[in-house]
Structures are given as structure tokens and as C-alpha cells.
Amino acid sequence: MHLDDLSRRLIDRFQHGLPLCAEPYAAMARELDCSEAAVLDALALLQQADALSRVGPVFEHSRAGASTLVALAVPEERLEQVAAQVNQHPEVNHNYLREHRYNLWFVLTAPHRAQIDQVLAQIAAETGLAPLDLPMQRAYRIDLGFPLGDTP
Questions:
Q1: Which terminus of the chain, N or C, has less C-beta within 10 A?
Q2: CATH assignment of 61-134?
Q3: Vertex 94: Cα angle to 2 and 86 (nearest 5)
Q4: pLDDT score recorded for residue 3
Q5: Exposed/middle/buried for 107, CB within 10 Å: 0-12, 13-18, 19+?
Q6: For the whole prediction, is pTM greater than 0.70?
């Protein structure tokens, strides 16, 4: 996808530090010297092109409740079906495919560990597959920003 100047500046500036205010898109527009409609249009185009999956905060999960990384070994012919079953749970995010015996990976977040255990049991019952529960032992912080700068 070719990025126009506004999209490139939008990504560079707001991968981190999304404005926390009543009108964040208007604040973004003021900083980028454009209209709020232009910001919303650029975000919509990025999402339609699958260049953007979401706009929102990343929370420190340990302060918001509990979370765990989960993997499932799904037979290839059942991948779409099982992914749809897993995605039905509002506690699920970051669902993605990997090249491994454990090929479907996702993160569960909930207010407390007991709810995570309940969702894991539900997923096992619904899919007939045993979830591999991989709770975080230690956090290693990395910067997930990807500056685009003037790259064409």
C-alpha cells in the first residue's frame, strides 16, 4: 500500500501518545494541521487496506485484571471454524495463525484469573482441543512503534 503524506504523519506521530481527551481525533487533526474529517478518512482507508487493525490504548494487563497467552493445536481443515469459535469470546484478542503444531495463538484478558480459567474450559469444551495456557512470568518491555519517516 502506498501511504499518502497525512497517513504517514498520522502513523508516525500516533503509534504512541494517542490524545486522552473527549475529542481525540480533533486533537490529532490540530497537531497534524488538518481537519478531523481528514484524520477519520485516513484512518478508515488504512483500516480498509488492512494496514491498521485498531486505534486504542494498550493497557498494563496486570493492573486491569488477569491475562494469559494461549495456543491451540488445530487441524488445518478446522482452522477457520475453531478461530471463529475462539473469537466469540469477548475476552479474546490478538488471535493469529503460526507455523507450528500449536498454530492458533491468542491472548485472553479478564478481570480475574478464575474467569480466564472458565473461558479456557469453555474453549476446550467447544472445540474439543486442549488449550496450552502460557501465563506471563516476567514482562520485557519493547517499543512496538515503527517510524515511517520519509520512506516512499
A1: C
A2: 3.30.70.3460
A3: 125
A4: 81
A5: middle
A6: no
Domain ranges for the chain: 5-48, 61-134
Residue 151 has pLDDT above 90, yes or no: no
Q: What is the DSSP letter of 40?
A: H
pLDDT of residue 74: 97
**31-40 CB contacts, 8 Å cutoff, 24+ apart:** 32/6, 34/6, 38/6, 39/6, 39/10
d(CA 99, CA 105): 11
For 134, phi then psi, to 5°, come to: -125, 70
Q: Where are the beta strands (DSSP E) in 1-148?
A: 66-72, 92-97, 104-110, 132-134
* CA distances to 7, 25, 39, 118 from 60, in Å: 27, 23, 27, 22
Q: Which three cell numbers stand for residue 7?
A: 497517513
Q: Rounded to whole angstroms, how far apart are CA atoms 75 and 61?
A: 31
